[in-house]
Specification:
The structure is a homodimer. The radius of gyration of chain A is 20 Å and the shape is elongated. The longest helix of chain A is centred in the middle third of the chain and has 26 residues, at 57-82. In chain A, 65% of the residues lie in helices and 0% in strands. Chain A has helices at 14-27, 36-43, 57-82, 88-105, 107-114, 128-138, 147-168, 171-178, 181-194. Chain A has nine helices and no strands. By secondary structure, chain A is mostly helical. The interface between A and B is large, with 41 and 41 residues. The first copy, chain A, binds a DNA duplex through residues 9-12, 14, 35-38, 45-49, 51-53, 56-57.
Chain lengths: 198, 198
DNA sequence: ACCTGAACACCGTTCAAGT
DNA sequence: ACCTGAACACCGTTCAAGT
């Protein structure tokens, strides 16, 4: 009845509505459980309608992954903003805590981005999350440090925190990791700083 | 015609045949593409027949995960056997290289074990791969080191190598990680040894 | 341009019935 | 005890047809 409550999909907002609802559906029930037909049902639209806006299911999932990656970036920036200390090691550890907190709070989004198989991170090396990490690791190095060495260290740091997040997402390891994660992140950052010759 | 070529599933080997064929199907096409109906078709059996041996699809997948974990253990032991050096840091690095090599050679098996969502690793902390790692990390510590500290270090080391494997499984990162992985593993092992007070 | 209806070739799972 | 046949409620995707 009300124009505002019953948006006219004929005017170009089915795509946006689909993405928003898909993210919600993935949040409950897991991203694997997301079906286009169920999504269409929720939106009061025929299954075929979605194919005007997404070439196939994976195209929708890729779009979702892109948005999740952007959300991760925001979360990481906020984690840095919340860290009062200017100490580079403390800031790097804060970044790691932000990463883990995001993976805990949005396991579905985390899964969609890092699912072991899709290549959603096509240009991930230019992606903001990596840039943030690179900067944080760079701040830990002395002024003259070689770029290649800083990049290697950033890669290693990502692998470490990502591994923590991935293992924590496994039932069997959740507790064991979660209880020591903050300490491990702090130790890692301090050890990394120590690895540069004084 | 030949009894040996046409095994009689009525005598209890459908279960074994199903697991073997399922692993092959997962190896091509990805573990996500494995369907019970396709599996039954391959085995020349009705779809319902599989339900005499597996309560549901996930039960078969769990069994597959258990076997993959056992295969990982074998691969890790072989990696240790291949490492001639007795230096604990070199042996820990060899273990890491073995982990990465397994993930590269059997991406499907790796995925089935560590898929970000299932809890296949129900008792992973007693699992052999973790025990091997714990031992390798322990060998790096001085005799009097506290157990809790060694366990934390083993957890961190697993997270690190697992993160490398997970990122490497992503198209976008494969090259960047693969080219420095061996160096990173060696540096990690050396740094870990250095982290213990002399 | 955007959506519907109906169809195709699949799924996982259940259950009566066969041997 | 182990398997088949047939059914149920789903999938993703395509394509003609409607507005």
């Amino acid at each position: 009845m009300n124009r505002a409550e019953r948006p006219t999909y004929h005017h170009g907002n089915l795509r946006a509505a689909a993405l928003e609802r898909a993210a919600q559906l993935a949040a409950n029930g897991g991203s694997g459980a997301l079906s286009l037909r169920a999504l269409a049902r929720e939106l009061g639209v025929s299954p075929a309608a979605l194919y005007r806006h997404f070439a196939h299911k994976d195209a929708l999932l890729d779009e979702l992954a892109g948005r999740a990656l952007a959300a991760l970036e925001v979360a990481l920036r906020e984690a840095l903003d919340r860290e009062a200390s200017a100490d580079p090691a403390a800031r790097l550890a804060a970044l790691g805590r932000g990463y883990l907190a995001f993976a805990r709070a949005h396991p579905d989004a985390f899964r969609i981005v890092f699912e072991l198989r899709r290549n959603a991170l096509a240009d991930a090396q230019q992606a903001e999350p990596y840039t943030l990490l690179l900067r944080a690791v760079g701040a830990l190095a002395p002024p003259g440090a070689e770029d290649a060495r800083v990049q290697r260290a950033a890669l290693a740091a990502w692998a470490f925190v990502h591994g923590l997040a991935a293992l924590e997402s496994q039932q069997a390891w959740r507790g064991a990791i979660a209880s020591v994660a903050d300490d491990l992140l702090r130790d890692y950052a301090i050890a990394l700083r120590g690895s540069y010759p004084a």
